[in-house]
Prior knowledge:
Structural class of chain C: alpha+beta
Oligomer: heterotrimer
Number of strands of chain B: 0
Order of helices and strands of chain C: EEEHEEEHHHEHEHEEHHEEEHEEEEEEEE
Strand content of chain B: under 5%
Mean pLDDT of chain C: 85
Shape of chain C: elongated
Amino acid sequence: MSLAQELLKGAAVRAKYLILGLASAAILYPVTIMVLESFDIDLGWIFAYDPSHPPPTYLNPTLRIYELALGWRGFPWLMWNSSLVALFTIAISMLVGVPAGYGFSRFRFRGRDSLGFAVFALRMIPPFAVLVPFYIVYNRVGLYDTHLGLSLTYVVLNLPIVVWLMRGFFSDIPRDLQDAAEVDGCTSWQLLKEIAVPLVVPGLVSTALLVFFLCWNEYLFALILTGAVKTISRGIWEGMSEAEETAIPYVADWDEIAVGGTLGIIPSLILALVIKRYLVRGLTLSVAR
Amino acid sequence: MDGKSSIDKVRRSRFQPYFFILPAVVTVLLVEVYPLLYTLYLSFTSLGMRSLQAQFIGLANYGRLLGDREFWASMQLSVIFVVCAISLEFLLGILLALSLNTRLKGRVFFESILLIPIATAPIAVGILFAPLGFFDDFNIALSRLGLPLIDLLEPKTMMTVMILADAWEWTPFIMLVMLSALQSIPRDVLESAEVFGASDFQKLRLIVLPMLLRSPVTAFLLMIRIIDAFKMFEISFSLSSWVGLRGLQFAIDTVTMYMYKLTFNPVYGWPMGYVASISIILLLVSITVAAIAFKAARRVWWIE
Amino acid sequence: MASVTLKHISKSYGTVRALDDVSLSVGDGEFLTLLGPSGCGKTTTLRIVAGLETPTSGEVYINDQPVNGLPPRERDVAFVFQSFALYPHMTVYENIWFPLKIRGESLMGRIARTKEVAKLLGIEGLLKRRPRELSGGEQQRVALARAIIRKPKVFLMDEPLSNLDAKLRVQMRVELVRLQKELVTTLIYVTHDQVEAMAMAERIAVMNAGKILQVDVPQKVYNDPQDTFVAGFVGSPPMNLINASYIRREGAVCLDTGYFKLDISPLAGAIEEGASSSELILGVRPEDVKVLPEPPLEESICGEVYAVESLGSEVIVSVKLGDFLIKAKQSPDFKSSMRDRVYLILDKKKIHLFDRKSAKLIV
């Protein structure tokens, strides 16, 4: 390779590092500010750095708000609520969505394409379109302010994704295996249970994770359809300590929010890092299929 | 022979696929379609907190929609937001994917950092970006450096910040998808190009980018992002409600925010019927556009 | 143990006709091979018998009972796939007893039967392993075990040996034939390898382009091909096929190929009866052609050596006759080199004449 090409090659790599570095900085910067704020550090002083002024006493980080947040009806309780809702949602949507995905994948039937489009179209429903009816109906049925109620709305929100993904995963199973199972005597349901599902377990995990993240982070429905049952997303906004239940969203002080935000990110981030591989697969496949 | 005739069996097996789909369909019908139908009904009424009776008023709500300048303004803002945000996200996403697609040291480190926005709740994203302008402190720093100040109450600034926030949140997602698409480009195509003497840049321009941009993956990603971007709520909500007067005054209104205001701000009188009609119209437009896009996309993108 | 009958089976995929009016009868306990090139419809036929595909028209009978609408699991057939189709997430034990498990047999019963079958196929030692740990041959046997365990009425095998290496293939051929004879079960076997078909089958059904061309015992398929396709497909190297015209002149009757003439007076009657025109195709197998370096006393054809392939046990000589190439089998001590002038004698008792439109006439 000529010298020019050598230099260029090095430059390309360096450029990549630069881009990635900038991106990382751009990502970390807001997060860092929020984290710092959560410790009640006065960033104002930092920004207006003036060596002539002595550092104010409140520069020291405190855990004051953290103490509040982790106390009674604080963060752990919010985590519990969110987890419960997520669990219900995952259970129901997988129970319902996996057979549907299998049905779409395995059979050729009339209306398959239009039903498939309809499933896809579910995503297009503006949340506000169903918010008010949900509120009214839930109140009447007694599902208002319950974990199950919120889960149900999330189930419908997630169903297109679950069906879509599982359809893709099931389609990956070689035709021969399914034929062999049929000849061996399986009914379609037996096929699903004994052969298809065991073979797509990684896909199941990826899908379940995607559902989990959506439940964890959703705000609007949680806001409207729950009062006492507060999820993490609401907790971030309304402060981690026990907040008033009002229809109009209550907004907490900035530092409380910072704490909320920081705490809120932690479980998601840990989970994401630990299951990175499955998560990435799920995300990419949710589009690739 | 056994009791059931073969005709019965054929008939039974033909309905089988529907049984698999049934639970999903029933769930959707109950939980989503029913409320939707209710909304449809509402859109023809004058239900509001003021008049607790739902009186049938025909297409009056829709007519009101046509003349509602606030609505159209918000629509315009939404469109601007979607176009800018998505362009930015895709641009950056592809760029990052290309950068990450090599054997770099510290690749895992970068990947982990890029996961953060995906793990962050959207409502928190708005918060993350708020300090940029609200704190006079930041502006103080800027002024000392001689740079113009950032005023978040200014609509243009707010919109920019919203777009940046959305990009912050979604670019990693797009990057991940693009990365896997990149990695699925068959290596022998690139190798044969190299044998023919193509430089890295040429390979990028003539093979990688076209394959990437024309794959059905990109098409789907684009569609999904557009749909979601129109529905974006948390970012604008958290940014503007916090920046403006605490309460229900917002510095910028996209369509979702407009609907939110209509639903919760007493100033408007809680016109539920009207809100319902907006929802219906939005839904119809989305479906129509999607259906057209599906058909048109078959040409531009491979297969699909 | 059952007979299988196909009546006028046709299968179309959209505009593509995969099977065109296929009718076939397989006797109880018979080993029948469907032979043909890729895409001829043999696999489709097999799948239709299994119930994995439904015919566009026609009926399928197993033991004289119509099975047209029945799904595979109610037909009591077993299918062995080219790819073996072993369930990767199950052990060999579970793979083999799967058909029994689905039908609700008890665990003790399953274990006993599996051990029986495994012993028959010599794979007892592999029972606790998983498919990915097995070699091709071992996977093959597991697939067979799974098929056998139910004692089905019919075995259906779709090129089961294609994925094995050559040596193993030859070995398994013998074993399969033995197995079928021991189990006395009807077997329909699909392959594109005519050597396999010839070696294994009781009867061969040759297929091409969705049609069955000839169904016969191997020897007759070889010696009496009904069709130029069958003639050219079976036998290695394939039968030489040359266009020829039938000429009757001055009381003498001969075949004119354009390059040489062949006197065939004794066959004149049969030809005139069976041919639709005077355009015929002359067929002669390489082993019925003798190549001599010197012109012999009898009628012979002169040609030039084009290529010589030495296979150890025999030598294949390609001789150029004008525009065509004739292949001949010679004994290993045949010596010749390119461009040598040689003389060919065709065994007139063994030539085949086909109407240009592919009907066959005489031996």
